[in-house]
Amino acid sequence: MDIKHISSLPKPNSATLYAFMVTGQNRKELEKMARENLDENIEIDKSYCEEDVKNFHFTNNIKVLFLGAGEEGQPEAEDLRMGIHAIINQTNDLKISRLVIVSMDGEGKNAASLRDIAETCVLSNYQFLTYKTDPRKKENSLKKISIYSTDKGAANLVKEGYLTGTVTTIARDLVNEPVITLTAVELANRAEKLGKEFGFEVEVFNKKKIESLKMGGLLAVNFGSPLPPTFTIMEWKPKGAKNKKPIVLVGKGVVYDTGGLSLKPTGNSMDFMKSDMAGAAAVIGTLCGAGALNLPYHIIGLVPATDNRPGQNAYTPGDVIRMYDGTTVEVLNTDAEGRMILADALAYAKKYDPEITIDLATLTGAAVIAVGTLGIAMMSNASEEQKNKLKTAGFAVYERLVELPLWKEYKDQLKSDIADLKNIGGRNAGSITAGKFLEHFTDYPWIHLDIAGPAFLHGAEGYRGKNGTGTGVRLLLNFIENY
Ligand code: BES
Ligand code: ZN
Ligand code: ZN
Predict the structure, then answer these.
(1) Distances in Å between the alpha carbon of 400 and those of 168, 350, 362?
(2) Of 145, 174, 233, 362, which is least packed with CB atoms within 10 Å of its CB?
(3) Distance, CA 336 to ligand 1 centroid (Å)?
């Protein structure tokens, strides 16, 4: 899709929908401007302030939509995003191909909004049509969006929004891709391809290399699979990077989770487990974003990847696995596989002496129970300052973090009779014991994000859409940009 900034309004025509964005300014002025710019004799509904999105006008084939953002009680930015989402939906419902968004704000908040507007346009108009025989039949009508603003720097802000939206859809594409295509090897291949496109370095460890490194957790989860695991290392290192020690991002890359021998029950619990690599997708998307925005920070991304299946050689409840860092783990549930592969990646991350490591994982059903699709469960041993920075980014992009404690007593739930740890901690505090397990493999400031709820949606939720959401990409990019 084509999204561009414009500084003069095109002549109205029947194939265009005009949307006037108003954020907290004098609405009389808006009306005046609308009349001046659309030199047709259009009627403007006086009730648009209250009715927002509902107020379409069809006069002389010009479609004008008024949207007021900034309701009380909700962050203005999110109102704006949801408003844009409504506009995009309506444009497609009306089978219109071109949208002109006129962004105006008497209070000068426009600049910050422009990026959000462009980003949300990309996210809202996103579709995954790879497997439709005739995608044109299903394609959205909307093909071209022009964002009008006279603000200084507007063109750049629109471009940045377009880029952050686009790299988020890269993560969505990866999540939506089924395992028949997106194997661990293919995930690594895609990372390599994206590295070339966005300018970051990619190194892929194959099974032989993973064996020689003795990444026992990753190898154990892979035992039941006919396909090999991969371990992908991505690096964005711009000249003159502002951080001496890197920011390390780790993403769970379980390309499909059957539960292994501790098979997930039928019903629908397995239907969407192609999304169990959403953490990996977020890390890959973020590296793309770092390249696209040319972020002045040194960033490393690690993605351990495999599927988890009950094959003949599958790892077994009762098995004791020696992990990459030498820790022994008694496996009492093969469905707690994410922590097995992440543990090896987190231990591997030590070699970078990271300033901060953030892992993202669709790790526990308990996180979905706790915060649903609206929040990310966060656990951390990092400083309040570091945690607060990420929480602030969470509010800004509306991927909000809910912190759970990592009190030392929780680790008692992971005591094993015969090994150093067991891989499950019982029903109570399931997300936290998973976090405690991961913590064991870190020796640096670390933040764990359990994205099991928001990573994949079973029904559309605004601009986050249905299916893969790309959760984590906008969060991490915002965090790093303000680092
Ligand atoms: N991938 C699942 C977690 C999950 C559940 C993600 C629902 C998204 C939606 C993970 O590997 C898993 O199976 N976790 C188990 C852990 C348990 C066996 C300790 C869980 O949460 O039930
Ligand atoms: Zn599992
Ligand atoms: Zn899993």
Answers:
(1) 17, 28, 16
(2) 233
(3) 6
